[in-house]
Amino acid sequence: MTGTVLKIVILHIFIAVVNSAPIKDESLAEIIENNYTIDAKGNYVFSFKTTNDLIRYEEGIVVNSGEPNEHIEVYGYYSYINDAGEPVRVDYSATEEGYKIGDEQKDMTISALPQSVVASLVG
Ligand SMILES: *[C@@H]1O[C@H](CO)[C@@H](O)[C@H](O)[C@H]1NC(C)=O
Asked: How far from 106 is each of 24, 89, 92, 102, CA to CA, in Å?
């Protein structure tokens, strides 16, 4: 009898400890920053950041505006914190050369865009 009570007490302590551990429920993540701009030509930049440190950034640049071969080049990345607590970032691009994935664009910022594009985005 006493042994059973002790087991129940230990079980409850175990459950209490497990329940008090910080559980990162990704489904409860919320967007805490959200930016989006697009100009009349269709050049755009958007980004957002969530409470669970997910970041998404993408810019689209209209190439050969008004020409028959007009198209949008897309550059972007997403990043997140992996299970080991390390930040992981994946860069990608979609251009006439196809879809590419890799981290060679790590320092990509809006200042890397052609000045004409920056000017049109800033207004
Ligand atoms: C959104 O824009 C603000 C102001 O330019 C900037 O500080 C912030 O880092 C941006 N957020 C994201 C997720 O890019």
From this structure: 27, 9, 10, 9
